[in-house]
User: What shape does this take?
Amino acid sequence: MARKKARIISVANEKGGVGKTVTVINLAAGLSQRGKNVLVVDMDPQMNTTKGLGLSAREDGLSVYDVIKLQDPVPAQSVVSHTAWEHLDLLPSHVDLSGFEIEVANKLGRENRLRKALAPMVNLYDFVLLDTPPSLSLVTVNVLAFTTEVLIPCQTQPFAYAAMDELLETISVIKEEINQNIKIMGVVATFYDQRTRVSNKILADLRADKRFKEKLFSTVIRVNTTIAESADHGMPIVFFRRSSTGARDYLALADEILA
Ligand SMILES: Nc1ncnc2c1ncn2[C@@H]1O[C@H](COP(=O)(O)OP(=O)(O)OP(=O)(O)O)[C@@H](O)[C@H]1O
Ligand SMILES: [Mg+2]
Assistant: This one.
């Protein structure tokens, strides 16, 4: 296989429920539909990304936790699971991941466990997409230490927009202290509802915000109940119902990223 160098993109926002997981699942599916080889890494012990891609805990019990743990870690290659779809692989999560923080708390190099463990994967894929939990835990710090690009979903709701200040601060601290290669890839507005005044106002605020300017994706992810429905069926929306607005929005986002 020709050697590649994947773009390493983490989808992050310390605010919960803004569409991180759905963005990882559906952007990954969109990119795979465009012929790109994609590895999804589920770094949230809630396992929503794993389930949303139709998988559950592996029979051998291995997960990304086993790749980054201190005692007898296993090579990432042996934990990669194939999804039902071409070009779309997953490093699944596990509830065990919630113990990582305590386990490595005082250990030297604790921020770089993931970066080291996934280094061999970077040459095998076009994209590595990582989902993060809604907190600045050591798991999230490990993701940001490995990442070169951060994709930020921002819900078109006032509290979500206000929380962006904190997130940008976090990323700049990470850049200063841990990973000088990290950059903000872009901000994508999510849960947009054309009918509501608040949604339109926040979208206008985002578009006028000088901090984002060219970094705000022109693609906007609209509210679409089929998105939640597809997650419940363990299928990315582009495979579940291609004609839905959710599928069209996420394919448009994938195309904007590839352009
Ligand atoms: N555009 C959308 N339209 C309708 N429902 C959506 C949309 N995006 C996400 N959802 C639903 O909203 C909920 C939260 O989305 P998601 O799990 O992706 O957020 P999250 O940021 O990953 O949350 P957490 O911080 O808890 O990990 C889910 O039930 C999801 O199916
Ligand atoms: Mg999530």
